[in-house]
């Protein structure tokens, strides 16, 4: 009888649990490896489709006759990254996006917290926000040129506007989503308004704030490129538009891909910062969150 029990335990694992091959950590590593494999495979399929369409000059109503091949763009990238002027375009765009985005975050987060906390502020400010928010960045270019003494300041202003509204709205919604019971409990423990903002409203709204920051970063890049194309002297947007004017197709695609890569990296840095500042949040990628649903 004892031998049978021991044999059963060996087959099912100690305490009747099935044996795990490596435990939860191994399962997590396998899931991460599978996610990365699918991501790399999708990129390779995209490049393959691009190569086929451009190499064979497909004309399926969408014309690929003038679109450069991946090899041509890669060859142009090797040359461009050795050019000091091209690197200057990248540095200038990064400086602009950094300045505009930082100013937007510094202005939108406190304003969103105050609007979410005090109804009178929300009633006064929200209508103006809703009128200005739908105006696209490109429509602000003429006005920004009139408002600011230099084109550099006008471009940073347009970038600021692109990031400001997503961060503001998400911060406002984050404060509104906080459980009122937490506020009442903090009040009963003697917390004043400053303590509420520090220990309740800001931590409670952080997930929404970082959602707004991530969305705002993407909109800021769109706004920046539009402004650089119209009124810039340097920057990736200016480089891309100049390439179009000079019929340099490989440079056009290079500029587009560079915008995408820099946008991806900047959003990734924000997500990493969110993980550091919010260790209590589940660490899931967007694809994993969708799968969990």
Automatic annotation (TrEMBL):
Positions of transmembrane segments: 33-53, 97-116, 123-143, 155-178, 199-226, 246-273
Keywords: Cell membrane, Membrane, Transmembrane, Transmembrane helix, Transport
Topology within the bilayer: Multi-pass membrane protein
Keyword Transmembrane helix: yes
Localization, UniProt: Cell membrane
UniProt record, GO biological process: alkanesulfonate transmembrane transport
Gene Ontology, cellular component aspect: plasma membrane
CDD domains: TM_PBP2
Keyword Cell membrane: yes
Ranges for region Disordered: 1-24
Predominant location category: membrane
PANTHER family noted in UniProt: ABC TRANSPORTER PERMEASE PROTEIN MJ0413-RELATED, ALKANE SULFONATE ABC TRANSPORTER-RELATED, MEMBRANE SUBUNIT
Protein name, per record: ABC transporter permease
Phylogenetic classification of the source organism: Bacteria, Pseudomonadati, Pseudomonadota, Alphaproteobacteria, Rhodospirillales
């Amino acid at each position: 009888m004892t031998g049978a029990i021991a044999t059963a335990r060996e087959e099912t694992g100690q305490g009747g649990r099935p044996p795990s091959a490596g435990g939860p950590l191994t399962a997590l590593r396998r899931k991460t490896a599978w996610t990365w494999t699918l991501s790399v495979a999708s990129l390779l399929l995209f490049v393959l489709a691009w190569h086929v369409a451009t190499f064979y000059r497909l004309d399926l109503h969408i014309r690929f006759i003038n679109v450069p091949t991946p090899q041509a763009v890669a060859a142009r990238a090797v040359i461009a990254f050795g050019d000091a002027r091209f690197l200057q375009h990248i540095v200038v765009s990064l400086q602009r996006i950094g300045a505009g985005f930082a100013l937007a975050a510094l202005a939108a987060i406190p304003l969103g917290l105050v609007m979410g906390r005090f109804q009178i502020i929300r009633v006064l400010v929200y209508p103006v926000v809703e009128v200005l928010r739908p105006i696209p960045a490109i429509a602000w270019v003429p006005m920004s040129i009139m408002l600011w003494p230099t084109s550099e300041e006008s471009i940073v202003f347009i970038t600021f506007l692109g990031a400001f509204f997503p961060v503001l709205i998400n911060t406002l919604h984050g404060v509104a989503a906080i459980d009122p019971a937490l506020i009442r409990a903090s009040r009963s423990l003697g917390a004043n308004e400053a303590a509420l903002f520090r220990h309740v409203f800001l931590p409670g709204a952080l997930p929404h704030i970082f959602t707004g920051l991530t969305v705002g970063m993407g909109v800021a890049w769109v706004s920046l490129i539009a402004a650089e194309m119209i009124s810039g002297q340097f920057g990736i947007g200016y480089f891309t538009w100049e390439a179009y004017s000079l019929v340099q197709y490989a440079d056009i695609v290079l500029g587009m891909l560079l915008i995408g890569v820099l946008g991806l990296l900047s959003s990734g840095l924000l997500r990493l910062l969110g993980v550091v500042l919010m260790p209590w949040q589940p660490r899931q990628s967007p694809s994993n969150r969708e799968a969990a649903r």
